[in-house]
Amino acid sequence: MEYNFSKIIDRHGSNSSKWDIIADKDFIPLWIADMDFPAAPPILDALRQRVEHSVFGYTMVPDSYYEAIINWFERRHQWQIKRDWIIYTTGVIPAISCSIKAFTTPGEKVLVQTPVYNHFFSSICNQGCEILENELIRKDNTYEIDFDDFEKKCADQKTTVFLLCNPHNPAGRCWTKEELKKMNDICLKYGVKVICDEIHCEIVMPGNHYTPFASVQKYSHDNCVIINSPTKAFNIAGLQIANIICSNKEWRRIIDRYINIYEVCDVNPFGVVALQAAYNRSEDWLDKLNLYIYDNYLYMIDFFRQHLPEIQIIKMEATYLAWIDISSLDLSSEEAYEHILKEGKVMVSKGTLYGKKAGEGYLRINLACSRKILEEGLNRINTILG
């Protein structure tokens, strides 16, 4: 089946965080991780059917919900999950916060790999913990892990949790099985628990492969909490649904306790039906979405090569969020962001959101939009920075 990802849908006036943050309709948003594409047809059909029922009371999560998750990850990623490992909740960030709370006490350290998703910082600080950075090493147009520093940080007696982003936002890495195994071996050596945000696991560019952290080996399976959701890949973030997957019964008990204390234990009917429609009937849509995003990525590479060759684009193995190195320009990330926004009416994300040191000299650009919008946005950026 063919899908028209190039169709432009006017999102103004829909209370969109992405589009309505600025009232000017000439504004182009290439910032927040929110796609402009309509959801997959099976998801829309399932939601219409649920709306037509006309009653939206408190929701139970049926057996078919768990079956959809189990079948999807076994079929698509060769990861076998048991039903009782799954705890549903409203979103990935609440799940991360509850998991950190379950495994730490205030004053302990949580290790992250910067530059990294900005909400990791708030989730850690909100639990009274200290952020410990293992800064990724830039090598050519990609990133590698500084394993010597990683082990040093894990060896710190106050480090109790490693919060991993797999695939990595914004560095674009799809961590290999070998990298994941090495990270887990070090964590096991020092008794560090792994919380793994895998929300971007379905947005993978051709030639790359996502490996669930828990599937690497028995020892990673037993030493991690996986947090995932279909909301990023299927553009249904507003429906508020996510899952915590953990094989350790005692860890699940503690996490479930905090899910209830923080009162993020109830989900809405639309998230439940949308997840099932996504995992059961929308795989073809997802595969074609990934190809469209990849084409946008290739277009952006060619555009910068022709017009702004001094800007480097980090290799995007996964996600739809391009990480752009502007360090050759005589501008800080903040200055470039402000110029592009005020003079070009384009909003990107400044790199320092993802780590003050590791993100300086970078911008993040959302490629999950129609080609026409991307073209206009890049042309405006060229006018400002060129």
Description:
- The protein has 386 residues and is an alpha/beta fold.
- It has helices spanning 41-53, 63-77, 92-103, 119-126, 147-155, 177-189, 218-221, 249-261, 269-281, 283-307, 333-344, 371-385, and strands at residues 28-29, 86-89, 109-112, 130-133, 137-139, 142-144, 159-165, 193-197, 224-228, 242-245, 312-313, 321-325, 346-347, 349-350, 362-366.
- A seven-stranded mixed beta sheet has the order 2-10-9-8-7-3-4, sandwiched between helices. The protein has a four-stranded antiparallel beta sheet with strand order 11-12-15-14. Strands 1-13 form a two-stranded parallel ribbon.
- β3, α4 (119-126) and β4 (130-133) form a beta-alpha-beta unit.
- α11 packs across α12 (371-385).
- The two termini are 40 Å apart.
